[in-house]
Design goal:
mainly beta; 7-stranded antiparallel beta sheet; 51% strand
Amino acid sequence: MESWNLNELPVEPHAPQVLDSESEGRAIVINLPKGEQLQEHQVHERAWLLVVEGTIGITTPGGDDAEGSTGLLAIFDPKERHEVTALEDARLLMVLSPWPGDGHPSQQNSGE
């Protein structure tokens, strides 16, 4: 077993910390200062985003927007586009599964 206290991890803004990265999934802690964004993006995996601390807003091209604070859990389908904005300093836990997902650059043949 491995365990972490997500509130006490020394994670610098703009320097996500990978906690675990196995074939079943990848867990990442992100500190996002107030007003900063994870600009619109998509990942190849299903993504679970949990607000550990702070408040965020989530926008999607389809209008499935959400806003919430500590305890908010958002789940994104693989390749679903979204943007996350910190409405106040926020600490986030993102879990991606399976890792890496279909179409991830690490799954492509290198020059073959």
